[in-house]
Amino acid sequence: MTQKNAIVLAAGKGTRMRSEKNKVMHTLIDRPILAYPIDALKEAGADRIVVVAGYQAQSLMDAFKDVEFAIQKEQLGTGHAVMQCTVLENEPGYTLVMNGDVPCLQASTLQALYEETQKNNHSLVLLSAVLEDGAHYGRVVRNDAGQVLEIVESKDCTQDQKQIREINAGVYCFNNRDLFESLSKLTTNNAQHEYYLTDLVKILSSQGKSVQAIQCNPDEMAGINTVTELYGVSQWMIQKINQKWMDQGVQIMDPKRTVIGKDVQIGHDVEIYPGTHLMGKTIIQDWCEIYPNTWIEDATVEDHCKLHSCIVKNCTVPQNTFKENEFIKEGL
Questions:
Q1: What pLDDT, on the 0 to 100 scale, is given for residue 134?
Q2: DSSP 288
């Protein structure tokens, strides 16, 4: 079986968040932002995941004990970040590289990247999206045969290149050997004096190696740089999760005022009223009614329960329970 590696870039502070906390450690629904790409990579079949940490690295290491870490002491660009992952240098297979602040990317999309790279023996497959306006994104430049030649940053585009609607989503799947052999060819000959991972596209294609791009839903590539963007992503995710449960018959009275974490499980004939938060590893069994302003976290609520304005944490609520305005922590 071909090995699947992954590198997650999470070394920056994220100054635009206006916070002393590392950006990827900010909470999105019920877990850090970084948890979402890590979970998606695991679901996509990644065998080894290396997170590149820098600012407040220990906080990341304490929160994610089931992945590996590489330390980027100086912030010298995305290419430089990947250079720190020497633990993968001699590994076989393919390596997916992505940022740690893109929580909307789906496991199926990442799996498609792995599969396309392996199936057609590409040196690199990158993720792209088609937008009406490419705005500040790098443009994907292809030749007449459809192969990707380079990524041109928006500020460097010619007038013709600015008309290109296919943009770089910032997620890459490399043949691992080609990746590490090519990193030494990166230079800092640019305005920022940094090593850019995107330069590998032109380096590999100029060597005659196969570089391709596959397109994703633009919603998936949403990154988080500000608190406002964090809010936008959370609203997208909340809507997506709530819609999934309503499609399965859960009666959510007001989806705009109901928050459900991605790991929550809900049975049949369940009614959920506004102001409810279902978080963590919560399980709501059948025929339950969760009335307004109830918070349930890492708990199991058994059949035929009715909870109103309760806080329920780390416990099991027995079937046929009715509680109102209570804090339930260790069972009943």
A1: 77
A2: -
Alpha helices (H) in 102-212, listed in sequence order: 107-119, 176-183, 199-206
Please tell me the predicted confidence (pLDDT) of residue 311: 97
Which pLDDT belongs to residue 331? 52
- Region at 56 (left for phi over 0; alpha for psi -120 to 50; beta for the rest): left
Active site residue 18: no
Cα separation of 110 and 83, whole Å? 22
Length of the chain as a residue count? 332
> At which residue do the structure tokens 């920022």 appear?
192
Which position among 16, 48, 142, 257 bears the catalytic label? 16
Instruction: Tell me how far apart the alpha carbons of residues 24 and 51 are, in angstroms, rounded to a whole number.
Output: 11
What tokens appear for 260 in the block? Answer: 């459900």
Q: Which of 79, 93, 83 is nearest to 45 (CA)?
A: 93
Which of 269, 243, 247, 271 has the alpha carbon at shortest distance from 256? 243
Query: Residue 90 has which token pair?
Result: 């001699």
* Residues of the chain below pLDDT 70: 331-332
Find where tokens 């959920």 sit.
Answer: 272
